[in-house]
């Protein structure tokens, strides 16, 4: 239950990303700066936290052991996650980006076979390749249907080009984020805490952000004061608070792929937070009764997903695991 609560809290702070990115786009800011500034602002805060906790030496030794892995999965988990999100924000409203982002619930479940999970038996612990949680996948579809219902009226008002340019990049991001996160957890094997891992992935993605900022400088010039301030807020709310909460939630259940998928399912509530944020700060229209039905489906699907994932894990027995090896 603690991991689910942390997941919900992280979704609240993640929602700031969609609202503020849309605000920056409406004010004429470049998505290139919106993406790179967030991680530049995150870096000194993360350094301070890790050094203050006297964990920098351990992180540095870990990164020296596998520098290419940190570079690869940091770039995928952070770079190919956030850059497409910001790009999509240039072509669609925040609510549409937040709604499309919920595909990560399905993406996370589909990635399960790429990893191993630890199963406790009477003879000790064994590792088996994860299996797609089909029951949880069905509950995820309820969430996706709820998102579709909630946004149907708005989506029909858009032309095909902005819809595609806002959907395709987010689909890419939906696979990149959980893939990078899980790969780094598997690489670290519990040797690093959440703060160390986030800092390490940020450092690993730094070459990507530097390249992006150089391109932004050559094409659009320096960012405006407004965009800089809003990017700083995104860095604090989403980059630091939300990411650390989410990574802590996934750390609690990192050896249980069913519960891990349930934690990732809590991110569906971002749609509600983003919608309310746009209503309050960007004067978006109030939700219609149809949208309210969609919200109920989203929350209900999340609850059912968590329940099914938990009961699936309870059904695993030593005899079941032996069958998986035959």
Automatic annotation (TrEMBL):
TM ranges: 31-50, 70-90, 96-116, 136-152, 158-177, 198-217, 229-249, 261-284, 290-308
Domain of life: Bacteria
InterPro entries, per database record: EmrE
Key word Transmembrane helix present: yes
Organism: Metabacillus litoralis
Alphabetical UniProt keywords: Membrane, Transmembrane, Transmembrane helix
Protein name (database record): Multidrug resistance efflux transporter family protein
